Amino acid sequence: MTTDARTQGGWSRSKVLLRALPVVSVLVMVLLWTVVYRFTVFLPSPSEVTSAAIEIVSDPATYGPVLSSLVRLVIGIGVGMIAALLLCLAGMRSSFVQAMVRTYVRIAIVVPSLLLALLGLVILGTTTWSAVLIVAVLVFPFAAVPMQDGLRSLEGAHLEAAHVYRFGRARTIRHVVLPHMAPYVFSAIRNSHALGWKVLIVAEIFAVRSGIGHEFQRAFDLFDIARVAVWLIVFLAIIAVIEYGVLEIVERRVFRWRPGKHREQLVAAG
């Protein structure tokens, strides 16, 4: 057997092991759960949670709250991301805008996001759009940080070449700035996705009468811990599908023409 063949075989086994690790982790967690629940009063058994899961998943009314939360999340993150990108681009031309964004980012990152979410609900009221706006406002600083890093790393030679070829501002942004910023934008999306869910669930628990957060609140009010566990599993499953079934696939397609450089930039952006 040649060295290359051995290397390929080793890589194949490593890939299989890496893919099996999540499954093994879940099985270990279920095993621990089965053991621990016998020594507690309130923790439901895996069989109770399974029965509740079948009941919830088979009920068509379940998917309304899920859809409501997804719509709020997409709008909130979208508004926050667009605002971060536009203000960071404006900061390239205006030192005042740059200083304003930097100051807000520093303050917003230090203060706990969940505390700001509760404060926002008190100020804006308990409506659907207040939850969306809070997600957008709190996502903004975490999206702006990688975007600012990307703009700082933009090479002056590229901008100078665009100026020599008389691209103009719009064409420079489209053909030079945005392609360079793409890895940093994806990094911002990943950061915003995780934070956006946390903020949205808190807003739905305390203010909005629909969505996944509201279902958590209903289950807690009824002290139905099995139902809480099912909604937690649904919540984690949605995050995993978006992270690995949507973002990762889109990312691969967008950067399939420069895989090596993209990986390096993603490491730098993260």
Whole-angstrom Rg:
23 Å
Strand content: under 5%
Unreliable runs? none
Distance between the termini: 40 Å
Helix and strand run: HHHHHHHHHHH
CATH architecture of the largest domain: Orthogonal Bundle
Give the tally of β-strands.
0
The CATH class assignment of the largest domain is Mainly Alpha
Q: Count every helix, treating DSSP H or I runs of 4 or more residues as helices.
A: 11
Mean pLDDT over all positions: 81
What count of structural domains?
Answer: 2
C-alpha geometry: globular
CATH-defined topology of the largest domain: MetI-like fold
What does this 3D model show about the protein?
The chain has eleven helices and no strands. The protein folds into two domains: 3-39; 47-269, MetI-like (MetI-like fold, Orthogonal Bundle). The radius of gyration is 23 Å and the shape is globular. The model has no long low-confidence stretch (mean pLDDT 81). The protein is mainly alpha-helical. Helices cover 84% and strands 0% of the residues.
